[in-house]
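The material for today's practical consists of a large collection of protein records. Backbone structure tokens are a discrete shorthand for how the chain folds in space. An example says more than a description, so a record of this kind follows:
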Amino acid sequence: MSAKRKRCKICRYDNKIDYKDVSTLERYIDRRGKIVPKAFTGNCAKHQRDVTRAVKRARNLALLPFAR
């Protein structure tokens, strides 16, 4: 039995990642404030880079914490 591959939610629903959308970005951050890797989120490489970039921008603008 092979593991079922996760589909990228951003590709599937044609969503955009924006650094100002804090509620969406919080889904990609764990309890300690680290960015969750794409193996757990199921994002494709392109959208994982977009998520990472948006989280870092939001942290620099104090919209998201660096650590919890």
